[in-house]
Amino acid sequence: MRISLEWLSDFVEVPPVADLVVGLTAAGIEVEAVHDPASRVTGVVVGKVEAVHPHPKADKIRVTTVTDGARSYTVVCGAPNVAVGQHVAFAQVGATLPGLAISKRAIRGVESEGMLCGKSELGLEEKSDGIWVLPESAELGKPLFTQVPSGATIELAVTANRPDLLSHYGVAREVAAFSAKRVKIDTKRPTEKGAATSTLVRVVVDDNKACKRFVARALTNVKVGPSPDWLRERLEAVGQRSINNVVDATNYVLMELGQPLHAYDLATLAAESGLPTIHVRHAEKGEKLTTLDGVDRELDEADLVIADATKPIGIAGVMGGAATEVRDTTTTVVLEGAWFEPVGVRRTAKRHGLKTEAARRFERGADAGITARAVDRCAQLLAEIGAADVGKGVVEVAAKNEPAREITLRMERVGRILGLEIPAEDVVKLLEPLEIRCLARTEGVLRIQPPTFRPDLTIEVDLIEEIARRHGYDNIPEHLPDAGGPFKFEPMVTAPVEVARRTLLPIGLTEVVTYGFGGPARFAPFAERCGDPVRLINPIGEELSALRTTLLPGLFDVATTNMRQGVKSLKLFEIGTTFRKSDRGSGRKVTPIDPARSAEAESREAELVDERPEVAILMLGGRYDGRWHERGETIDFSDMAGVLDDLFEAFDPREAVVRRPASIPGYHPHAAAELMVGDRRVGVAGIVHPDTLAHFGLSGIVVAAELSLEALGSVAKRAVVYRELPKFPGTRRDLAIVADRNTPAEALRSFIAANAGGAMGRDVVERVWLFDVYTGKPIADTHISLAFAIDYRSRDRTLTDVEVNGAFEALQASVKQAFQVEIRG
Amino acid sequence: MEELKRIEKTALTRAKKARTSQDVAQLRAEILGKKGALGTAMRSLGDVSPEERPKLGARINEVKSRIEEALDEAVTRIGVAERDSALASGRYDVTLPGRRMYPGAPHALRLIEDEVVRSLTPLGFTVATGPLVEHDWYNFEALNMPQDHPARDMHDTFFVGKNTVLRTHTSNTQIRTMLTRQPPVRVLAPGMVFRKDNLDATHSPVFHQIEGLWIDERATFADLKGVLKTLAIGLFGPEAQIRLRPSFFPFTEPSVEVDVRSPMLKKGLGWLEVLGAGMVHPAVLEYVGYDPEKVQGFAFGTGIERLAMLKYGIDDIRLLYENDLRFANQFASRAGS
User: Mean pLDDT throughout A420-425?
Assistant: First the structure.
């Protein structure tokens, strides 16, 4: 809302701009911008043109004599409109104007002691025709902007709850309150000399809930024409276009009092039993209306319209119709002032995609207490400027007066919410300047009546906010809340996220954050595993229309971005949510404390989607980022396996996490694994399939993993119980196995661990670990040599060579048989 | 006797000149070995008269022990020299960068989120999360924004289904928490949120918020101020100040916009709007099944991107989502990488 300070000063003494901004800010009215041309102008005073002579050397410029009341100056002026006797804006030597400093200088041989300014030079308008001729009341020698308004405006960001601030008068009320001044308003009624309104128009309101009040006033002898300058200038100052005097007057009142008005050409209204009739009713099926903006609109039966005897002539509270608008030929007008119900106006405005000044006010709540006065004000204005005669009386249709709103305010409650005791008499004094009245006061309880222009004040806590606002938020003490009471365990739901982050960052992975949605094509390579993405109904564009089903595309993008910068080695992870379509909805169990709410909570979950907190890892390039000790090694699956082991260990699982070779869509068919905890898959990992990489413009060896943080977080934890250190010596046997390359090492290792004890049992096998992997001669290309060390140790005796050798030989035989492998000598 | 003197002299001179342990070993063999010079001398004792024999024998032993001493000395001297030379060839350039696993860089948004969490958990807050695809009821209605509420205009919303949206704020977590927990409730809710904004230097359709909610029987506006001050100090240093301005949110009453000022922030910025807050609206408490006559409390929320941009002087929100390592690495502590 743009407020003209000059206009504001009609209603309240306006403090200096800086104080005004501070006061409004503290009152919770955000000042978005201050536009004050005066702040960019110095040294300009009111002068008077005493003489005008032609310039000796130029036809189009004149040499003037100008006085500032103290002495006379020679000023060269190029404006065609300069004339003797004019009061002018005189920029003296040393003055500053926007982008201009005035000094004494010769113009075509004549020395000029300053400049006579047009409005454009003062920054008041884009382009001026000649100099600004000031009113004669402007006192000579006084700084310009003490004598004429500068046109200063402020831009207010008015919150949705304060429709009362969408007017100059409304803002004036707040200014008066915080600056302890009185607000003044002219309540003069128009001089009525035309025919009685009731003889000219009839009003029928069908739905008095949607339209609580309708006031019509007839204007006769209307002379449509341009508005006087002062009216046009005020409207333009607040960003309104001048149309004609009648429409301007309605807009003027809108900006002044906040009440939307509409003017109809009475002659265009269809009559009913001989009298033009206005109906306030809902649109009928199939009805159409061409609105003022020239758009043909199909009306909805839910739309409230203004209609004459036969057809809609306006969308109530939103926009009038083109056919009944005031035009040059109009001679009789009916002014409409009404109160329309906010939700209906909002729905209708939204339905028709219309954002109008009227709708903006109605949908937030217009002041039902000002409807009649606004109509009168508009009529009076038009009479004053000689644009119309005002008819006698009004036609008013109003719903039965609702009792005025009353709110009970408990002083105990004020203290309890604010943490500050304020005596009741102070509360009354704080509220009074806002026209919030105390009707009655009993022990600790006030009966309060808010004014009609404050639809936001409906319950006790609304008043408490007003008290706090008037008292000053800065004057409320600062205190730390007491988390007292018995200890209550709250699960830290983000623990898995923290564990993942704490583990992955120190081992060299950088955390990235990417968008939760993207183009659907990004997720196509993963559709077989992750399904089709959930799509938005109203995306910004195709490329941001699908919720991610996997975190990998985001990581691929980051890789591309960085490789474009010449990065050769990357280790990245992202923690984020992925989304899956699901017939079961979210699958989330919501248990309200009130069991009666369980069913609705459940049905809401059924409409949602399956969300999964995941961590994804991507690595590629040089193992040591090309540092000095790197000998050409590049990141391969073993690096990922190591990272995953670190990650799993950080979750401290009771059961080992096993990488099970698997074919996973999107990954290398022979270099990918499912990550298993028992029967539960907690994630997948592998070398990314070259086709997948190509889809994202990448190539080479890229290893990736995707894990469910929920699954990781919920694995059974290891319980640490100390075991006595071994007392007896152990012994080691090495077993080198030549196996087919498709034999998983882990399968061999776990078989050995299970069988190496032989007759001594499994307990004596302390550890089985891989210490060498060999391919090449003399081993066949199809085979691989895997060498395992077996540490034998008993907890209660020294094992003899005989029994260990026996077990070891038996083991070799069983490995050979089970895996069809050779043992290397 | 002359011979003995000559042997000694030669031996001592050669011992002194010996440069390697092989030199010493050879010398030892030549002089002290079975077939060595002294051995020959010893064997010549038989040619000497019995009276002379003990005297000469003693002389030989004296010479032998002097030579042995000289040889030992040579061994020690050579040992030291050889070790020194071995050390010299093992010179290591201690200025080479260490062989280490360089840590990755944390994301700026996570750093801010962590700072908020770390600042407030000591007061009794825990962390809660909520879904990103949310039912209208949690995102709007229960926050006192029923259908057709004008405040919905402030939220340009992405729709997923008829009644489902991408959450426009993390406040849905507040509702979910209250709906399922008895007071007292003290949670922080961080996470990704969505608004239908086009991407430019200061807007992003995806951003992050963190909110706090405190409900008990007596939490006041004064308590809210204390928490906000704690948070401001946690984020912007011990000299941070806060300023509260009245505002409007449908889910709080009174409502507050919070401005922060701190010498830690770029000079000349003055008061910066960083948070919205307020006392939880009684209607919200009723929506979740609480009795507003019995419990009350406050809530606050802030945009993590905005905080990160202010704190680190980032002038383009897109940098936070591009994940250019040249940007990311500025948030890592990796000396010499």
Answer: 93
